[in-house]
Amino acid sequence: MKRTPRAIVLAYSIGSIGTGIYLTAPSVLLLYYLTQVLGVSPALAGLAVFIPRLWDLATDPYMGAVSDRTRSRFGRRRPYLLAGAVLTALSFGFLFSAPQLEGELANFVYVLIIYILSATAYTIFAVPYLSMPAEMSEDADERASIMAYRMSFAMTGVLAGAALAPALVAYFGGGRAGFSAMSWVLAAVCAVTMLAAFSGTARAPDITSGKRTNGERRLLAPFRHPGFSLLAAAYFLQLAGLGAFTGAVPYMVTQVMARGESDISTVFLALLGGTLVSLFLWERLARRFGKMRAYFAAAFVTLVGAVAILPVVGPQSWRALIVCTSAVGFGFGGLQLLPFAMLTDLIQEARRKGDDAAGAFTGVWTAMEKGGLAVGPLAVGLILSIGGFAAGAAEQTTGAVRAVRLALAFAPSLFIALSLPAILKFNRI
């Protein structure tokens, strides 16, 4: 069987630096930006992060179906990589560049509108982009290898979105000016890496047949195949756990650990360092013991790391927080890699049964991905609001500080635990 050229795999994977930045920076900083810079209440800020993801529930599957039926000299997927790369970068720059507006409602509306437009731009790129690995090879192990490469570059993007972004905010002086400068620097990185994926995949193999799934059958293709809904539900829940964790970290660092915003980067370096170290290990474990056993092992490691954060109560526990976060990152590496590898297997199985609709599958999948990453910050916003967290306040009450700790340790653990019955049932199909 002809292997996918490594140069193409690497060129394709570089695009995930941009997707990692785009998905992570808002998950980490947008809620914090809204509450601490724009003065929006936590509950309302959580809605600003969440509502655009409801829009994604409609646009992502539609985009997948559109790319499935596209015919062009660039192929089915690549025209959208070009358009999406430019639009995503521009809209990301404006997201953290709110003008001076009076009142929390005006700031809420600005961020909400820009985020909806930005989410649409990202959908144009991401859904066709994520459809491509399933079409590069018929070999399940090679597809898993392609995903491991993609995820390693994605984690580099996540590192930039989670660790470099707070450092850039601090470097540029914090506040509105700091967030705005950070967003345009990272927007440029998104543009370059996403466009590299477009240009570098011009000769990417495409194993799909000439026979296409049409119309309504294409849109409904994912739900005709046993296991897809269960796998997507599990992925949604574990990403909600990741979104809750990343959304709560800035508050944990500044309000519980009593450290500056620049130290947010240190925690995310620990999280993403653990993830990067683990990716190819989880791939090897999946080859040897099966994807499902590796998934449960990854979930166990993540749960242990998150629960261990509960006793972390103050600045004296800084090192303990770093160690626990590294463990969470190590587990999340498997929780990110393995479900997508299982998805490519489902897409291949569907193709053999006559449904050549990789875009429809990944459209629903990316909607679940972005929805999960938005539900997490929404949960954090609600927990902080119930705990009495005051937006923009330099000091918080004891109840608000306790709410931050619960949001960081309890919410991710709950979401990941809820994902396990779905993945277990998926294994039995």
What is the compact description of this entry?
The protein has helices at 6-37, 42-68, 78-95, 104-131, 140-171, 175-200, 215-220, 228-256, 264-289, 291-307, 318-352, 358-386, 398-428. With 429 residues, the chain is mostly helical.
Could you give the topology of this structure?
Layout: H1 6-37, H2 42-68, H3 78-95, H4 104-131, H5 140-171, H6 175-200, H7 215-220, H8 228-256, H9 264-289, H10 291-307, H11 318-352, H12 358-386, H13 398-428
Describe this entry's structure for a reader.
With about 425 residues, the protein is mainly α. The protein has one domain: MFS general substrate transporter like domains (Growth Hormone, Chain: A), CATH 1.20.1250. It has 13 helices and no strands. It is globular, with a radius of gyration of 20 Å. The model has no long low-confidence stretch (mean pLDDT about 85).
List keywords for this structure.
Growth Hormone, Chain: A; single chain; mainly alpha; 78% helix; 429 residues
Name given to the CATH homologous superfamily:
MFS general substrate transporter like domains
Q: What is the count of helical runs?
A: 13
Taken together, the total number of domains comes to: 1
- Mean pLDDT rating: 85
CATH topology-level name: Growth Hormone, Chain: A
The largest β sheet comes out as: none
